[in-house]
Inverse folding.
């Protein structure tokens, strides 16, 4: 089985619609794909509808924006009940903060001489939940950076970058609690992605594990071999699941679907732990 548990659609900051994502995942030879848009479940219905005629299984989820001790981090939440009111309300608070935060980053870029406009970012985001990749795409269009990834540096949009603006975010311990209460499973996304900014310590990961975190994303394009080896050992030491995923954003990044994958036994354990929803296959 080929299992990719971290992808994005136009419901947040990917370039594939949810239906295109499903079709592309099937064409890429995946057996299981998770839709994990940022702080939203808006792509679920279209993705489920697109399963017809495929052998693909869809895992519903979201990537929750978190912050602890001034450090940004992302929490992958799988198979939770999207209608559970406390998690729903918390997600809406985070989503409501995205527009003023993005406007703030546009203002900082303009102050640095970048001729970006809010209208450009709105056009690129479309109906998606606006975020840094949309701003980065505008920077590519303007020739400020060569690629979206080049915008996520300390010079620009990284967590400790010159134009970074904080937003409403989950406390990661609260995120774990809320997702678990909604029947879901939590995995710390790309915990060793140092290029994006400062990362949390192993001690914080251990504390999250003690609080109910289920796993950490080990195999990720932003993790070099040494980082993967260290994180795999840490997961084993803490009794956490070790996942692998592409973090696919369509044409916005060079990564392809299935570039990193999760072991079938780890996926089976995630599905077994979830009580809020179940993986969906075509009928």
């Amino acid at each position: 089985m080929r299992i990719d548990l971290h992808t994005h659609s136009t419901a947040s900051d990917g370039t594939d619609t949810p239906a295109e994502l499903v079709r592309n995942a099937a064409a890429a030879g995946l057996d299981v794909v998770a839709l994990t848009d940022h702080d939203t479940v808006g792509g679920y219905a279209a993705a489920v509808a697109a399963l017809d005629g495929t052998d693909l299984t869809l895992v519903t989820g979201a990537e929750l924006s978190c912050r602890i001790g001034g450090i940004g981090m992302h929490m992958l939440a799988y198979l939770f009940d999207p209608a559970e009111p406390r998690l729903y309300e918390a997600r809406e608070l985070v989503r409501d903060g995205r527009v003023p935060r993005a406007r703030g980053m546009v203002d900082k870029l303009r102050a640095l001489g970048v001729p970006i406009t809010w209208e450009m970012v709105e056009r690129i985001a479309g109906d998606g939940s606006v975020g840094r990749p949309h701003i980065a795409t505008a920077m590519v269009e303007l020739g400020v950076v060569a690629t979206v990834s080049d915008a996520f540096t300390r010079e620009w949009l990284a967590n400790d970058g010159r134009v970074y603006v904080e937003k409403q975010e989950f406390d990661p311990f609260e995120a774990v609690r809320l997702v678990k209460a909604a029947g879901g499973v939590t995995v710390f996304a790309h915990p060793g992605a140092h290029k994006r900014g400062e990362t949390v310590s192993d001690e914080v990961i251990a504390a999250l594990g003690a609080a109910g975190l289920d796993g950490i994303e080990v195999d990720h394009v932003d993790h070099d071999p040494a980082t993967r080896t260290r994180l795999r050992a840490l997961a084993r030491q803490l009794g956490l699941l070790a996942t692998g995923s592409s973090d696919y954003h369509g044409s916005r990044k060079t990564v392809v679907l299935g570039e990193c994958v999760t072991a079938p036994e780890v996926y089976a354990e995630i599905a077994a732990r979830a009580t809020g929803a179940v993986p969906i296959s075509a009928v």
